[in-house]
Amino acid sequence: MTQDPSHLALVPFVSVANMMKLVHHIGLERFLTELATEIEADFKRWPQFEKAPRVPSHSDVGVIELMPTSDGELYGFKYVNGHPKNMKEGLQTVTGFGLLAEVNTGYPVLFSEMTVLTALRTAAMSAVATKHLARKDAKTLAMIGNGAQSEFQTLALKAVCGIDTVRLYDIDPAATEKCAANLAGHGITVVTCTSPEDAIEGADVITTATADKNMQTILTDNMIGSGVHINAIGGDCPGKTELHQDIVARADMFVEFPEQTRIEGELQQMPLDHPFTELWQVMTGDAAGRTSAAQITLFDGVGFAIEDFSALRYVHSIIRDTPFFTDLDMIADPDDPRDLFGMVMRAG
Ligand code: NAD
User: Fold this and answer.
1) Angle at 108 between CA 32 and CA 328, to 5 degrees
2) How far is the CA of 142 from the centre of ligand 1 (A)?
3) Is 236 a catalytic residue?
4) What is the rounded CA–CA span in Å between residue 96 and residue 66?
5) Predicted confidence (pLDDT) per residue in 309-332, tens digit
6) CATH number of 5-116+306-335
7) Given 3.40.50.720, 3.40.1280.10, 3.40.50.300, 3.10.25.10, which CATH number is that of 132-304?
8) Is the per-residue pLDDT at 28 higher than 80?
């Protein structure tokens, strides 16, 4: 049956297939760099955003979360899960989708897959943090946890921060092998390692992206030398952390949204008066980032709604002149707004 076009208010939808085409169309490193720029632009106008910790629904095996925010003109949310046991069942640990809407009408302007987009935005966020906090001469990354996020994390740091060497470690050597094979030909020197100690040897930046639903100590204090920047992004739920408390105590900590980091990040291990700096204030120049070459900086990244908002806003801006979306008939919009019933009856 053909549809009555009078009720249509079409919403562009970016499927997984189209998101992948879009990444190839733009180029992965350019995509990551432009997304990092958008995230930074939104962090610099942080006070304009409506902010709240994400809304989680925890189970014994994982979490399903809603992440909303608005800048007064656009509203965005992401649905995302985190299920560390999924990988062993052949499923993704993290999947997501999201929506951007006009605040003025409440009408959606974009609906998108966000499994691929979350990996891209999490990588772009680590790159923004690294750009502001790592030593300017940082060249070597230790990437610990070589799962779904790892190649994106590595290439974002290459594109945005000039990282030229990555040292890979995962408790599962098959993950390291996969990551090394995927990174081949991307213009970065890849070294596979058999222990976390080996991986961090000579590293200027360490990114931990491991998945486990408990308090892990992927890194211990004796492993961390002066001058290192750490992106700890795998600890992003209550009771799920990656670093020994002594590292967190010794490092200067930088966070996204403190109310959420307090519940989900490495910060949950620390007393309430543990000092931290909000990363947006480093970007606006209102707070200091790295102040010496010897300092240990820690980005306690848990993933905040504004990063997803930036990602959706970026995708919305780049799909316009491309074929990489389909129009979804997901909003009932009768010509006479009060005649919703009539529209339904006419369809019969
Ligand atoms: P994944 O399951 O694909 O990969 C995780 C990897 O960690 C696996 O290869 C596993 O073998 C490895 N691992 C587990 N314990 C380890 C240990 N002790 N030492 C070394 N490696 C270990 O998961 P993913 O999609 O890559 O996500 C990684 C983590 O990042 C998850 O915890 C996820 O929740 C988190 N994450 C955070 C954000 C954020 O914004 N902060 C965004 C996305 C994902």
Assistant:
1) 90
2) 14
3) yes
4) 10
5) 999 999 999 998 999 999 999 999
6) 3.30.1780.10
7) 3.40.50.720
8) yes
